[in-house]
Specification:
The protein has 494 residues and is of the alpha/beta class. The chain contains 16 helices and 15 strands. Strands 1-11-10-9-14-15 form a 6-stranded mixed sheet, with helices on both faces. The structure holds adenosine-5'-diphosphate. It comes from Nicotiana tabacum.
């Protein structure tokens, strides 16, 4: 059957172009480490922005009191309250409220969006009086998790660089995110101070470090993807806002370095928000489906790594492959199906098809029928559908693993001795310390096969021995709780 063969060929070509043998993953690891170095060395030196966060000390468990957090950045919006008892790992209690962000607000005005945020906070606080606990007499302190690229101006303020993940609110770009929120809170008549402005990954790292001092990096793989890590002060040779591009480089760099050192006070390090969703390397296995998805997106040429890895996109890559297959064969059913509709197949449903273990793939049939309006797809074609989901998810998980190892390589925790001055120091044997990477996001926590592929690739790249010292630890709601922890840390130090 010629048509069947053509469909199989689409799958074979996909497998071929999505290949991630360990050699290729190691090239991605090296590229990530090199790009990190370049992004730190100069502003605009890499697609990785390597944003300084001004977070120079992470929570240590001694934080005490009641703190609030808002988390805005993906599919769901969250308001939290965290009670801290002052002893490590003793988060006494937490209350979390989640709600989906109304679609129209994602492309409205900053005032509309933040009024929604502030009014959710107000409702949340007003419900307190009904509970057992007394409302706090003093001004409330809040951490704001805002998971978009922000150029920080302090630990509690920063300017929005650009939107990602389908958000687009022009009037907010270039403005101080904290100030916008603080004004919205004031409009609602609330006495709440924005004491920390952080990226979600930084929150995940903060909670990770609160729970385990060996935590050195954090990764979020949800609607979008990003990572941050703790960098040594002497490796941060740029200081945003202080670095100009004109001559006298050596002399100037020295001065910038000194100024940076002044900033990096207590611990001699600072958390760097990599914005790794924008990572790019010629070693990434890219297909025509990725290119088409990128061209059709609101941010073409941007967030290339994110578009291969995160929840907003995986379902749509699969949809594009299935559409291609359906054009080769009428086994898929009517051409009038939803297959041609962008984002008709969401990642959680793609995952459900992938993980369908019924003998006749009845869940695959149900989703194809109900969601994509493709009734009566034969079992052998359903098997191809599952295979497509597998290829796309496996590639995503393995690339994410390579990204994580790239970070470990940069900080010398991959067993190779790290890099200095852009050169690898493989000659320096180093004993491997216990290393924890905090991880969060629906893909890792809710998609079992994704998690298994990622863990497996970590082992393949690092080898059994070294990978036994690297622990990926899930931090449930870390991005929100971490913001409250950092608000506590910032309030205590004033
Ligand atoms: P955020 O939207 O803040 O990133 P999450 O980290 O919870 O929130 O990630 C949600 C994303 O994770 C969704 O957009 C979805 O793509 C993906 N996701 C959630 N559950 C699953 C699942 N069971 N299988 C696959 N992907 C999932």
């Amino acid at each position: 059957r010629r048509k069947w063969k053509k469909m199989v060929k689409v799958l074979e070509e996909l497998e071929e172009s999505c290949g991630t043998p360990v050699g290729r993953l190691k090239q991605v690891v090296d590229a990530m480490a090199v790009e990190m170095h370049a992004g730190l060395a100069s502003e605009g030196g890499s697609k990785l922005k390597m944003l300084l966060t001004y977070v120079d000390k992470l929570p240590n468990g001694r934080e005490k009191g009641t703190y609030y957090a808002l988390h805005l950045g993906g599919t769901n919006f969250r308001v939290l309250r965290v009670h801290l008892g002052g002893q490590r790992s003793a988060i006494l209690g937490q209350d979390i409220e989640r709600q989906p962000i109304p679609q129209h607000l994602m492309t409205s005005t900053s005032e509309d969006l933040l009024d929604f945020v502030a009014s959710s906070l107000k409702d949340f606080i007003e419900k307190e009086g009904n509970g057992l606990e007394q409302p706090s007499p003093r001004r409330r302190e809040l951490g704001f998790t805002f998971s978009f690229p922000v150029k920080q101006t302090s630990a509690s303020s920063g300017i929005l660089i650009k939107w990602t993940k389908g958000f687009s609110i022009e009037d907010m770009i270039g403005r101080d995110v904290s100030e916008c929120l603080q004004q919205a809170i004031a409009r609602k008549g609330q006495d709440v101070r924005v004491a920390a402005l952080i990226n979600d990954t930084v929150g995940t790292l903060a909670l990770g470090h609160y729970n385990d001092e060996d935590t050195v990096a954090a990764v979020v793989i949800g609607t979008g993807t990003n990572a941050c890590y703790l960098e040594r002060a002497d490796a941060i040779i740029k200081c945003q806002g202080l670095l100009t591009t004109s001559g006298g480089m050596v002399y100037m760099l020295f001065h910038i370095f000194v100024k940076c050192q002044g900033l990096l006070t207590t611990s001699g390090g600072m958390v760097v928000n990599m914005e790794w969703g924008n990572f790019w390397s010629s070693h990434l296995p890219r297909t025509s489906y990725d290119i088409d998805l990128d061209v059709a997106s609101p941010n073409p040429n941007d967030q290339g790594f994110e578009k291969m890895i995160s929840g907003l996109y995986l379902g749509d890559i699969v949809r594009r492959v299935l559409l291609r297959m359906s054009q080769e064969s009428d086994d898929f059913g009517p051409a009038s199906s939803k297959l041609a509709v962008p984002f008709a197949l969401r990642t959680p449903l793609m995952a459900a098809m992938h993980e369908d273990d019924s003998p006749d793939l009845s869940e695959v049939a149900r989703i194809l029928g109900e969601v994509l309006e493709l009734p009566d797809v034969p079992v052998k074609v359903r098997k191809l559908v599952v295979k497509v989901c597998d290829v796309i998810t496996r590639r995503a998980a393995r690339l994410a693993a390579a990204g994580i190892v790239g970070i470990l390589k940069k900080i010398g925790r991959d067993g190779s001795g790290g890099i200095a001055g852009g050169k690898f120091r493989s000659d320096r044997p180093s004993r491997m310390r216990r290393t924890v990477v905090a991880i969060e996001g629906g893909l890792y926590t809710s998609y079992t096969l994704f998690r298994e592929y990622l863990n497996e690739a970590m082992k393949e790249i690092l080898g059994e021995e070294i990978s036994s010292n690297v622990i990926l630890r899930v931090m449930e709601d870390g991005s929100g709780i971490g913001a409250a922890l950092l608000a506590a840390a910032n309030s205590a130090s004033e």
